[in-house]
# Entry
Amino acid sequence: MEKRVLLAVFLSFLVLFVYQRLIGPPPPERPAEPTAVAEAPAAESAAPPPAAAVSASPASDTPPPSTTSEADAAPSELTPATPIATVVADTTEREIVVETDQVIAVFSTKGGVLTSWRLKGYAEVSGEPKELVPAGAEMELPPPFTLEADEAPLTAQLATALFRPSASSLAVGTAPQSLVFEYEDTSGLAARKEYHFDPENQPFVVRFSANVETTAGPANPAVRWGPGLGGSAAPSSGFAYRQGPQGIFLQDGDVSRLDAADLEETPGYDGTFDFVGIDDHYFLSAALPDLNNPVGVVYQPVVVGTGETQVTLIDYALRFPTPAGETRFYMGPKDFDILGSVDDELVQAVHFGVFSWLVVPLHRSLTWVHSYVGNWGWSIIILTIMINAAMFPLRHKSVVSMRKMQELQPEIKSIQERYKGLKVTDPDKQKMNQELMNLYRDRGVNPASGCLPMLLTMPVLFAFYSLLSVAIEIRDAPFILWIQDLSQHDPMYVTPLLMGVTMVAQQRMTPSTADPTQQKVMMMMPIIFTFMFLWAPSGLVLYWFCSNLWGVGQQVVTNRIIGPPKVHSVRPPAERQVKKQKKKKKGGDR
# Structure
């Protein structure tokens, strides 16, 4: 029985490894073809494809404003174009820095756009704060919060206009503050962008609103994010699946995660979204639109770099139904507690997998332990001890059952030996099963009781695997000495080797009903597991090592409690028949 359980554990981990490493999460079902975001207009606009696709709305029938159209500006070759003068604008292009306790944001007066969004509590490989906005200028792609109208000249004018900021810099403390950009010129164009910050109640969130007025009336440009999340490359830990940038949205209670291939096939989606944007393994950029109004979104994969440095980013643009109103944008870590404080539905951006029902309480328990310990490595060890202590009775019962089965092996093999020549369909084969059941009943042994307690512990193991594979809390979290990042593999491979040693020790100490050949085959499993865990996150290896170490200690205690195995001699069939006859005769005399 325990051989089958160990084999099941091994095969389960092998499936997880292949799935996470080679396949990743399965692509979601394709939503219905969008209506609000239809195909791009044919060659009428010089804007990039996503913006053109988003702009394909009823508003596209509106003719371009006369003050910004080159054709209208020159009705006759004899009439010179009227120069456009600024009414409200900044004098030169400059940067406006907004700093909160969580982020350092940099805005540009040229277009009033976001050019940098660095997270203070999360570092790059270089040690600098994590940057979520890649260098858009190098990729010739628009930065976040670029406005793209249905008319290409208006889009270009909004992108190059020098907006006048409401402040030269902004230090946001506990009180909410806003940064406003304004622009107006003699062509009739008037634009206003407002970024509202409330880090005390809405960390990593910006409330964004934009108003654009032209001579033709209010415009409703799309909000272009541009390629996002800084081109985060997959971490070096190769065991757990490391998700690159992908499109993500929550619609009608279902989370859709779309990789580059999905987005090339179906770039546009529309409807009401709880949140919509892009994410990678640890970070998220998403809009939280009003659920009362539909939103159109168009994605575009963007390949950056060449060779080994090549990464695929995701560009997305949003079309809102009305020009007025505010929309929240979350740009930060996929931290379960932080996401929950921003919006209850936003926590679904964290992909815990099928064991999320168990991962969430484990995550909260780990966070609770960390609040007292202050070190994520020691927190993992303490929580592992707590979990294994709670499972002590199950494991003890499993070992006791295995010991009883081990003691019965000579008699079981003797019964099986007598019937080994029979076919499965032979009626006499049922006699063997009946004898085995009688033997189990007489000795008070349940064959399943050795497997069931071990199977009950497997969900906890897989839940811990899911937790430590995606939890951003252990990203860059040091433990001791050479382990300075629990989300990466052990650089000296000490913990995986120790884990393998404890697996061997535990397997040798555990009662076994397998024959010597099978036991030798089973001894290969610790070697295979050790090899697989060489590149696993050190936090996960630490959990497995501590769990094995606890198992070795518990095995020692259990062996002392139940004592050495009892030896049951197997009588030959003739001797058993004689004893049965004596019992029958004795009963008849009475």
